[in-house]
Write a structure and sequence with these properties.
The mean pLDDT is about 95. The longest helix has 29 residues. It is elongated, with a radius of gyration of 23 Å. By secondary structure, it is of the alpha/beta class. Helix 1 crosses helix 3. A six-stranded parallel β-sheet has the order 6-11-10-9-8-7. It has a four-stranded antiparallel β-sheet with strand order 3-5-1-12, covered by helices on one side. Strands 2-4 form a two-stranded antiparallel sheet.
């Protein structure tokens, strides 16, 4: 759940922007069928099995439209839900319920989809020391929601944004003139509290990264045999991350490596939504 400060400073502005995208002047359909204030109630129903996530955001959509709106939840973020399950009852001005419905569901379906996909991948690493982490491959302006969903699903967050940590990828290394030079420059520029991570693509780069004193070495798109050799060479001198097209279909094949971290962009860029509906709206 987002704390009050995060909610007001970082979450509310994004929700309001999404609402403004959907309502430029008025909800013509809602105002056509409901001319005056009339209280109503609707059911939040899950239409497939999965992990629910984003209930606070769902409620916030309606609260921002009308503080008098209320939601009675029967589940909490992280719960396993099933097809046909009644998850909440929403009450408020019918016009508010109608014009907030799609935005609220978009957030809830997307976040629940990410949490569900993450849970399915995290389960494949159970019993190992390896952490499953996300990447910056998130939907623009939805990172705060998607990274929260990864955590609810049992994963972990990598750096939040470019200001959050030093990661020297292929183009940084190319611009600097090599792994050693890139690490030296980063060490001289960044704060002492920040670790330096280096992305490597072959064993020569692994050796350079170790000799340069990198704190974290990311083995990117290397073969299984290459990764095993790299891990043996690193020999505890740096944390090890494995990355590169990691999905639910292939993550189990990486579990035996015993690395510290496996990162997957698929957690956010390839997770399907969880089908959820707001049904049975009626006046009360």
């Amino acid at each position: 759940m987002f704390d009050k400060v995060t909610l007001k400073l970082n979450v509310d502005p994004l929700i309001l922007s999404a609402l403004r995208e959907d309502i430029t002047s008025e909800d013509v359909s809602a105002n056509s069928v409901m001319r005056d204030i009339q209280m109503g109630e609707a059911d939040l129903i899950c239409k497939e099995d999965g992990i629910i996530c984003g209930l606070q955001v769902f409620e916030r959509v309606f609260k921002l439209l009308d503080e008098e709106s209320s939601v009675e939840f029967f589940v909490k973020d992280g719960d396993q839900v099933s097809k046909g399950q009644l998850m909440a009852k929403l009450r408020g001005d019918v016009r508010v319920l109608l014009c907030g419905e799609r935005t609220a569901l978009n957030y809830l379906q997307r976040m629940s989809g990410v949490a569900t996909y993450t849970r399915s991948m995290a389960q494949l690493l159970e019993g190992t020391k390896t952490k499953l982490v996300d990447t910056r491959k998130t939907t623009p302006n939805n990172r705060i929601f998607e990274k929260y969903a990864v955590k609810v699903g049992g994963g972990h967050n990598h750096r939040y944004n470019l200001s959050d940590g030093v990661m020297l990828k292929d183009n940084h290394i190319g611009a600097a003139g090599g792994v050693k030079k890139a690490v030296e420059m980063a060490r001289g520029y960044s704060s002492f509290v920040r670790k330096i991570e280096v992305e490597v693509e072959n064993l020569d780069m692994v050796r350079e990264a170790v000799e340069a004193g990198a704190d974290i070495i990311m083995l990117d798109n290397m073969t299984h045999d290459q990764m095993k050799e790299a891990i043996e060479y690193i020999d505890g001198r740096a944390e090890i991350e494995v990355s590169g097209n990691v999905t639910r279909e292939n993550i189990a094949s990486l579990a035996d490596l015993g690395v510290d971290i496996i990162s997957s962009g698929a957690l956010t860029h390839s997770a399907p939504i969880l089908d959820i509906s707001l049904k049975n709206l009626h006046t009360v």
